[in-house]
Design brief:
Blueprint: H1 2-22, H2 24-52, H3 64-73, H4 85-119, H5 121-127, H6 129-139, H7 142-147, H8 150-155, H9 159-168, H10 182-185, H11 189-213, H12 218-234
Helix pairs in contact: 2-4, 2-6, 3-4, 4-5, 4-6, 5-6, 5-11, 5-12, 11-12
Length: about 240
Amino acid sequence: MAIDRESALRKARENLKEALKEKDFIIINAVNTIEDLVKMINMLFERLEEWNKLFYPSFKSKNIEMYCEKIIQGDLVNTMVEISEKDKKQLFNMAKETLRMIELKNSIEEYTNEITNKLAPNVSYLIGPELTAKLIASSGGIKKMGMVPASTIQVIGAEKALFKHLKTGSNPPKHGLIFQFAAIGKAPKKKRGKIARTVASKIVIAARADAFTKNFIAKELKEKMEIKINKILRS
């Protein structure tokens, strides 16, 4: 039994080393962690805002960090009911916790971008490491990402809309996560579909290079992509 257990542990360690070597495992978990933190930050800020406006109703700000800093500094003007020291302390603690979670999120994002740049230099150069990490996480890894057609890359993240299209015959989605790429998101609505197809086709080529050949081809790819995008915008 001891030999079997040791063998199993050795195998588990080898599998973990392989997973860490690929870096996909880390990126997928990091992206999921960031998404969870964003939800938690927004939820905590919503509660903080509701609580704080009982005492400081005139103070408003959509900048979460600025809002929390103002509470921590204690320089808000109270125009309503009297606020006790205990109330101030709880608001202070909530604001501090919100900022701490933002700091953690930013740290993980920086760490994820660094790993993504190393794992997928071509795709990262093409569309940025943050969006690249999200696509890797949604695809299940850089190798899987490099094995799917461009049409799949184009709609990753729009699974609900795609399912609705297949079920009801509604218009199919023209883009998913890659809508976050500035060239698509800022383009006129009627141009976005064509630009999304162009970007997706280049992402697949870049992903295949990152996953299999390890050759850096992104500079030329990006130049061709930008030429095609500009042509679409002028048409």
